[in-house]
Design goal:
This protein has about 210 residues and is an alpha/beta fold. It folds into two domains: about 130 residues, Response regulator (Rossmann fold); about 60 residues, Winged helix-like DNA-binding domain superfamily/Winged helix DNA-binding domain (Arc Repressor Mutant, subunit A, Orthogonal Bundle). The protein is about 50% helix and about 15% strand.
């Protein structure tokens, strides 16, 4: 395969399985546009590395959604290989810079395409993940299957009210004595639970539901 031009795309990989990790390393090394910047056995190790090294894309093999959401990967686009395909998880991942979500059975060419797409700012989903989202937004199947929406926690209510006040993440973190990453996690959860796509929409829905006094 030939170079697309420009510098190499710096890619790091992570998988708890040594066999799968070696497989990802091999895929990255097989493509001339990629430079393997690091390989890790845990999400936490990759996250720590990403904050001290300039990365373009990280490729992660994992089903641990909460761990994935709680470990920020600096500004790198994220490609995820996973068995997870439920709409709620996929939606939450997409709001946290996961740009490609594929099944573990994806062949090397699909993974290479996902890395290139993520690097170019595109989103690439496996068929099960795409079908899960389509079911929610086309047929509203999620409400039928899960019943009432998840309740907003008291801490999430506090965060939502501060968003309504116009506070940015840094100010919210300072006021609550938590990290900015934790604030981002709360906001992602709020958007997911309210079915909102933006902070402004979340505030409007919060007012409508009586979560924000007016």
């Amino acid at each position: 395969m030939s170079k697309r031009g420009g510098g190499a795309i710096r890619v790091a990989v992570a998988a708890t399985s040594a066999v799968r990790r070696v497989g990802l390393e091999s895929i990255v090394r097989s493509y001339l546009d990629f430079q393997l910047a690091g390989s890790f056995g845990s999400i936490a190790s990759l996250a720590s590395f990403s904050h001290g090294t300039e990365l373009d894309v990280v490729v992660i093999d994992s089903d641990a959604i909460l761990d994935l959401l709680q470990e920020p990967m600096s500004d790198a686009a994220i490609v995820l290989l996973t068995a997870v395909s439920d709409a709620r998880s996929i939606s939450r991942l997409l709001r946290n810079r996961f740009r490609a979500i594929l099944s573990r059975e994806s062949d090397p060419d699909d993974i290479i395409s996902a890395i290139l797409a993520a690097h170019d700012g595109l989103v690439l989903l496996s068929a099960p993940a795409a079908e899960s989202l389509a079911a929610v937004y086309d047929d509203r199947a999620l409400e039928v299957e899960t019943g009432l929406p998840e309740e907003i926690t008291s801490r999430e209510t506090d965060v939502l009210r501060m968003v309504a006040e116009g506070l940015v993440n840094k100010d919210i973190a300072t006021r609550l004595g938590i990290s900015e990453h934790t604030v981002k996690f709360h906001i992602s959860s709020i958007l997911d639970k309210l079915g909102a796509s933006t902070r402004t929409e979340a505030v409007a829905l919060g007012i409508r539901r009586g979560l924000i006094p007016i």
